[in-house]
Amino acid sequence: MAALVDAAREVARQLLETPLPRRWSHVQAVAAKADRISVAVPVEDRDVLVASAWLHDVGYSPDLVDTGFHSLDGGRWLRRKRYDERIAALVAHHSCAWLEAEERGLGEVLAAEFSREETAVTDALCFSDMTTGPDGQDFEVLERLAEIRSRYGPDHLVTRFIGRAEPEMVAAVQRTQCRLASNAQRQPI
């Protein structure tokens, strides 16, 4: 399965490195974090988590923009390229994207096109994204949400979305932290 992660990394690099270097920095850090915390998910899901982290923001690539909603655009592109359906759905729904889709009038479209899972993988992907800043720096989740709000301004659709999604994002981060702590307690010293 390491081939899955390697392929995802290369696709993300090709789509983001040159046109969106800041986004590429973020994606690299999110994927590295997902790899580090992958012990929070079942062994069989670890490569799916890390591959999804590499691909979570490909929908920002100028070559892929369709609706202007990066989660949906990325998921659709991955599906067209015959990527694993689960990864396409994780990208389409990452970090509470269904709530942003509702703000954009695309909630029913997203729900009809991609199934949404609620698992340790979705929590860990949200954790990795929502504790990593736009330049790859580590943030505590509430700092990250404040950074997003300040970047978009008080009246922006993304700021409204963050307000709605904050409780779920914080809960996903906390659930992942609990899984990591539980896993650490089980590890031999």
Number of helices: 10
Strand residue percentage: under 5%
The percent of residues in helical segments reads 55-70%
The H/E string reads HHHHHHHHHH
Overall mean pLDDT stands at 96
Query: Radius of gyration, Cα only, in angstroms?
Result: 16 Å
Q: Number of DSSP strands?
A: 0
Global outline: globular
Verbal overview:
- The chain is mainly alpha-helical.
- The chain is about 70% helix and about 0% strand.
- The protein has helices spanning about 1-15, 20-35, 45-55, 70-80, 85-95, 95-105, 105-115, 120-130, 140-150, 155-185.
- α4 runs antiparallel to α5 (about 85-95) and α6 (about 95-105) packs across α7 (about 105-115).
- The chain is globular, with a radius of gyration of 16 Å.
- The mean pLDDT is about 95.
